[in-house]
Amino acid sequence: MYRYFIELAYNGSMFHGWQIQPNAISVQEVMNDALNKVLRRDVNVVGCGRTDTGVHASYFVAHFDCDTPLADTEHLVYKLNRIVGNDVVVYSVQKVDEETHSRFHATARTYHYYLRTEKNPFVKDFSFRPFYKVDIDKMNEAAKVLFEYVDFTSFSKLHTETKTNNCKILYAKWEPSEDGAVFVIKADRFLRNMVRAIVGTLLEVGRDKITIEQFRKVIEDKDRGKAGTSVPGQALFLVDVEYPEGMFKSKVKRFPPFK
């Protein structure tokens, strides 16, 4: 059996997330269908994680297995891009060791959440503009609290299949943009809905609904009901996935979708 990594990106607006759903279109379903048509065999693509409905990925990694080696992966990329539609782009297909796993071997993932302070109809589908003002400095002080904890049950979607809610936050900061700010967060793994719940709770700090100490208490209580409302998904992008050095060589330059 031969294993291949796929590097891709997608606009999540028309998809119900990455993972196959019984009655809704997903990115995984689109990729499976495209590979089945091109390779003329049943292929199941395994993603590096799962994104929620409406969430985008400017960089995503998946893998699939094939019982025969692929002679021309560049031509495969060309054929896939003719099939997957305008909301998905395939950057590369490359052979890896058959034990290499796109999800389990990923060491870190980075997300961006785009907050706009000015009304802009041309980026409304890729950002969030709250109707209130927030204090970015105060939200950054609260974000530092995340490094003190590993159990993020308070920011996880309820009734998931995960065995643990422990994550190691590696970076978390609001960085300025031209007309707002972007929340950059990097961790070894993320729970379902985690980033959107963290951002929603940080906004509660930024608008003086809760204090930084209350933000800390939200984490310690391990109760999703104590955290803030999840922010809309259209402003969230998966922008990077990292693997151990030498596992495979990325052919994509990762650029943020916005400045």
Care to give the gist of this entry?
This protein has helices spanning 27-39, 73-83, 136-143, 194-206, 212-221; strands at 2-10, 46-47, 56-66, 88-96, 108-116, 169-177, 180-187, 236-242.
Structure report:
The protein has 259 residues and is α+β, with helices and mostly antiparallel strands. The chain folds into 2 domains: 2-105, Alpha-Beta Plaits (2-Layer Sandwich); 108-238, Pseudouridine synthase I, catalytic domain, C-terminal subdomain (Alpha-Beta Plaits, 2-Layer Sandwich), CATH 3.30.70.660. The chain is 21% helix and 25% strand. Strands 1, 2, 3, 4, 5, 6, 7 and 8 form an 8-stranded mixed sheet that branches. Helix 1 (27-39) crosses helix 2 (73-83) and helix 3 packs across helix 4. The longest helix is centred in the first third of the chain and has 13 residues, at 27-39. It is globular and about 60 Å long. The termini are far apart. The model has no long low-confidence stretch (mean pLDDT 93).
